[in-house]
Amino acid sequence: MDAESLYLDLYDSIADRADYAQADLPGRAFLSETxxxxxxxxxxxAFVTGFAQAFGERISQGTADRVRALLGRSxxxxxxxxxxxxxxxxxxxxxxxxxxxxxxxxxxxLSESTGEQRAEEERWVAxxxxxxxxxxxxxxxxxxxxxxxxxxxxxxAAGEGAAS
Amino acid sequence: xxxxxxxxxxxxDRVVGEWWTRRWIWGLVARLKADDDPASWTQxxxxxxxxxxxxxxxxxxxxxxxxxxxxxxxxxxTINPVPEHRHMAPGYLLQTAMTQDELSDESRFPPAPACxxxxxxxxxxxxxxxxxxxxxxxxxxxxxxxLPLRNLPDEWCAxxxxxxxxxxxxxxxQLTYARAANSVLRCVRDSRDLTHWHQNMALQIVAYxxxxxxxxxxxxxxxxxxxxxxxxxxxxxxxxxxxxxxxxELTSFRRQDAYMSEQFAHLFAAxxxxxxxxxxxxxxxxxxxxxxxxxxTMRMGLRSMRGRYEIPPYLVPELDALLKAxxxxxxxxxxxxxxxxxxxxxxxxxxx
Lengths: 164, 352
Known about the structure:
The complex is a heterodimer. Chain A is an all-alpha fold.
């Protein structure tokens, strides 16, 4: 799968439930695609932080920092518990697709993760979503869905690597 | 099936289906009395829910009517299999929906009234006003002794609380909210064809009505904790819900209320503008086929439109594949055009 399709897959897993992101806002409005894209970028950023923690020694620091920068996260604010409002995040898909291209070769590592590491990766994404107004059980479901899609992509990439 | 617009039009109509609802609950009580085995009831409830869905499509029972019936099933489903509650037959609880007339004859349900009483209808002489209770208040039930359907959920919830069945009542709330959230996902992800999509929309409207029957917060409108004019817990949350759930759980339910009201708004807007009709879907497919640029944005657009009921889920992969295939062609064309332009510009330079 190419990076664009993977990005759309991640966008897909969040699009149906993106309205939770404004559940706590004083005035709700029609949720634009830009906000959904920003939400996708933010959750992917949270995943990358957890992923880099689990496999830090096998991912070059430069790549990790570059990916985080593309997703609008500074390296020093990697464990920030208060999420940036999605409206202030750069929502254009290109940087996120670029980040996924950089990340693609590391995704096969996901298949090596233990159950505990897997839960931790999902927890990072879920925590990000909960901070943005998602109820815990919905955040957990979306996180599991997103991580499963990334893991499936990692499995495909590993298979292709082995075949070639 | 009945058009989806019909379900929206009759969304607030809580009266029309009253006889139908009572008749159905009467049948449910009779069945509970006849077969009180919890193992067979789990199976029976699944079948009854499926029957109810079919009846919804065929008989056009309005959303709140069906929501009441699902609520009755929730109560049976929650209480019946619990061994410590087995001595309290759920049929007894459901009987509060019945009048004395309806309960008196177990083999026959009174026929539907021919018509509603005309304006200026006077109460017959032999009908007496209900007596005052010990506190001096007259009961809120109308003169004919019927418990209005709109009071039924509150009545059942209060009964469960009086019986100290808070756990069962919690389960009823959770079941209702889970059903509403699942109805959204089923509609926007699992619909197989146009009719199935429309049916799932109708079921989502019904599930939303069911959530409103036991709404935890006073409406789907936002009341943020950090709001300067915070109206306080009392104004935001239903008293029964406040008794049953922790503040974290209440926040979670309130967010679900907000989400479901947004979903209903999307659904309403899509149906009102006819986005769900075949001709509009054909026009959308045509515009996608003819698109020459902006493919990634359009692919994103398809996915967000799916969650706004503007495109059925079964159509998304097909149109997405078209856009995906068109992307390299479009970029190659753009590249050729760019090369032609730059070579033309390079050729033009010496002349200048």
